[in-house]
Amino acid sequence: MAIDLRMHAMNKSWLCMMGVLLLLLLQMGCNKNDKSNNTGGGPPAPDENPGLPAYISVSPQDTSDGWNVSTPDAEGVDSQKLLAELQVIQGGTYPKVDSVLVAKNGRLIAEAYFNGYGPDTLHDLRSASKSITSALTGIAVEQGVVSTEDKLEYLVDLDKYKNRDARKASIKVLDLLNMNSGLACDDWNADSPGKEDNMYDAGDWVKFMLDLPMVANPGASQSSYCTGGVVLLGSLVASRTKMNLDDFASQYLFTPLGIKNASWRRSPDGKATGGGGLRLRPRDLAKFGQLYLNQGVWNGRQIVPSQWVEKSKQSMTTMITSQSNGYGLLWWKRNFQVRGTTQEAFFASGNGGNFIFLFPQEQLAVAFTGSNYQSRLTDQPFDILAQGILPSLR
User: Fold this and answer.
1) How far apart, in Å, are the Cα atoms of 113 and each of 10, 55, 60, 90, 282?
2) What does the longest C-alpha to C-alpha distance in the chain come to?
3) Other CB atoms closer than 10 Å to residue 48's CB: what's the count?
4) Residues whose CB is less than 8 angstroms from the CB of residue 262 and which lie 6 or more positions away in sequence, other chains included
5) Which of 12, 22, 122, 297 is 20 to 30 Å from 352 by CA-CA measure?
6) CB crowding 76-86: b at 16 or more within 10 Å, else e
7) DSSP per residue over 308-365, as a string?
């Protein structure tokens, strides 16, 4: 009998151990899409494509994800014109546009998915992610843990890094938000030492940025596009909030928005970074845009400070070699013709055709995902807006 009891105990212990092992394996599997996504250097991994048929709707379903839904005609938009433009995309006129979502007056009125992608597909937003990092910074500022006027000499020990410079010490959080830090970083200049490809080859991305020399005074009227500066900004937000950037985003931005699935680009140390590569569902990307049209409020809850949203609409600098009207707080600004008048929109922009366009006067948000990476076709959404979506407004 004693032997039987011991065998029973051993079997029970073995089963417990197997259960724990199975649980760990399941957790690893559940987190695989997030933890192993785009860690370290090299090109981003492609999005998973479920191979779904194209889908167009000008009467979106209420999926209980937080969106109020309506129809174009009910919100002052010509449904036939809008539908026709979405069908043009389906016909192949605009290749590799993967989704289009249109919201008017706070309601989702149209959504379309192409090229095998669907409403639940996580899509790499590339640099449109930077505008989300801006929102996280605004939340941290509201919490009082960081200020836009805080300087690097206060936030980090610069004696640990190369090229110690009084100008570097005086770089403000605001300069990182406006991309005019003065660091030798320009992604659009192949000879720039701080361009993002060089950063991705480094083992420590934050150290790479803090080691860079200065080439200009911080706060200049012109900006140089610098992904590494936003990586540094995200790291500073994480440090000041004493939370990982993805955990901070989940608690204070994504969960309040009802965003349940997100995947971050991670540096070689495994930490989430804010410079680009965040993956979201298209509906969740559109939610983020609507949040800004609502002055930082979603379903009655203030998530991003309203004053931060107002500042995000303003042009604080101009971007070198850019055709946009201005730049500020990691948002672009550009004028559009709407019903014969000139209106300025502000928008998030990512390589491949990933955009959120916001037209405050029209209470219009238009989100695009696309896969035209490193291609001149990345700007196709501007044509789609001008040719079909904006003309559909009554």
Assistant:
1) 54, 5, 12, 9, 9
2) 92
3) 14
4) 34, 122, 246, 249, 250, 254, 278, 279, 280, 284
5) 297
6) ebebeebbebb
7) HHHHHTS--BEETT--SSEEETTEEEEEEEETTEEEEEEEEEETBTEEEEEEGGGTEE
Q: What is the pLDDT of residue 38?
A: 66
Tens digit of each residue's pLDDT (9 = 90 or more) over 108-156: 999 999 999 999 999 999 999 999 999 999 999 999 999 999 999 999 9
Alpha-carbon gap, residue 242 to 114, rounded angstroms: 40
CATH classification (class only), 133-239? mainly alpha
Distances (CA, A) of 107 to 93, 199, 253, 317, 381: 27, 40, 20, 32, 21
Domain with CATH 1.20.58 in the chain: 133-239
As annotated, the residues of the chain forming the CATH 3.40.710.10 domain(s) are: 55-125+277-392
- What's 253's DSSP letter? I
pTM reported for the whole predicted model: 0.90
List the structure tokens of 18: 């197997």
Q: How far apart are CA 360 and CA 343, in angstroms?
A: 9
| Residue 341 CB burial class (10 angstroms; 0-12, 13-18, ≥19) | exposed
Its CATH architecture, for the domain 55-125+277-392, is 3-Layer(aba) Sandwich (3.40)
Q: How far apart are CA 251 and CA 232, in angstroms?
A: 21
